[in-house]
DUF2336 domain-containing protein
Amino acid sequence: MNDLGFVELLSAAQDAPAEKRGECVRRVRDAFLQNATALPPDQIELFDEVMTKVMDQTALLDRVTFAKAVARSPRLPDRLCRRLLGDTTMVAAPIIEHAAMSDTDLVRLIDPKNETVCLSVARRQPLSVDVADKLIAAGQPKVLIALARNVEAELSYAAFEILSDIAVEGAEMDEALSSRPDLPTEIARKLTRALERRTSRRLNAMIERDLEKGRKPFVLR
């Protein structure tokens, strides 16, 4: 597609009636993704200006689809990126998870009251130790498990200690941490001991249950 064709698509999206706006947005999206590396700066600037405004009149489902598609593009312009970040969580989530953002911006997004946003941050690859520490400080259980499962997240030793304390009490965190290739040896030993204790407690509980029911417990020889 030449530059004029892209400009025409932007113009059509800007002027489209409500019933045709979704289709126009999809055409602009596809053209941008197919030609982003070849588009000159003035075309990217126009894309930024027009689509930032068009998003205000675009249906939610079309905005979600648009955000998911453009989130990974290295040429996603700043103003449009901010517009999508300021949208509903459904629209913002793929931008938070995949778009190019500084650690400072990511830390600002972390809100202990917004689990969905924090989950999106926790799944970013890669993820710096500073951002990971901020997520741990927020303390949301599902977010901490997602962070532990993200092998591209850089975790400090202190972070491993905090997560391993949670793992002592729950198998889900235990499994998440045990899959990490960077798990420190001492933390791995701690998890092994915790697993042995949990297994022992479960076996003892099963034996007590069988005895209460008058059944002879099974014993390995």
Residues 151 and 181 are 8 Å apart (CA to CA). The chain has a mean pLDDT of 92.
